[in-house]
Amino acid sequence: MTREGTPASVTWTGQRGQPTRLLLLRHGQTEMSAQRRYSGRADPELTELGLAQVKAVAAGIRAVHGTEAVAAALSSPLRRARQTAEPVAEVLGATLNPHEALVETDFGSWDGLTFTEARERDPELHGRWLGDETVVPPAGESFAQVARRVAALRDELVAGYPGQTLLLVSHVTPIKQLLRLALDVGPSLLYRLHLDLASLSVAEFYPDGGASVRAVNTRFPTS
């Protein structure tokens, strides 16, 4: 049976088999995110507010997720993601493992700069980068490259955890790429979808290639 109680062979949307459900959690606030700076492979810690956000997620995620078992928790190896993942994985009773595919985009020499600073430094390149996922920041990584590694991770998880629920703690771009895969839409989603810090989105991927998005940008208020 599926989670909705309908026969597992087919759902009301026509997808077959049981989906792998991904709980997609963005990390909490850092000083760089508070200052709206590109934060790719830099490794800042969470701020006090970021730690409070994580505490709120850990307390509230059951209300969104329910009591279903979480088979595993995967996290970007960067510190801000691990600091977010550890208490949430503990609440869910899941073993936490790092996964390189969940790391944020490498913004190269723009890392640590604000939008305005990056645009002033490389006006022509920055302008093209904003509308073309194949454009690479100086010494960095394109959004298209992120998309390929995230798609490979999706395939790995659907094959390895059929019908199970996983927690993935990552950054804004990998999470957007997973939602993009689930919605089967173009790269415009990357530039138009807003995801808050410490927000939760939920996507399901079926073994027959189907997918559905069940939640986007769910927030957990801090006390």
What can be said about this structure in brief?
The chain has 223 residues and is an alpha/beta fold.
Oligomer: single chain
Query: What's the arrangement of strands in the largest beta sheet?
Result: 3-2-4-1-5-6
Per DSSP, the total helix count is 8
On the 0 to 100 scale, the average pLDDT is 93
Strand-residue proportion: 15-25%
Amino- and carboxy-terminal Cα gap: 39 Å
Q: Which secondary-structure class do the elements indicate?
A: alpha/beta
- Alpha carbon gyration radius: 17 Å
Produce the secondary structure layout.
Blueprint: E1 20-26, H1 31-34, H2 48-65, E2 70-75, H3 79-92, E3 96-98, H4 115-121, H5 123-129, H6 143-160, E4 165-170, H7 172-183, H8 188-192, E5 200-205, E6 211-218
Parallel strand pairs: 1-4, 2-3, 2-4
Antiparallel strand pairs: 1-5, 5-6
Helix pairs in contact: 2-3, 4-5, 6-7
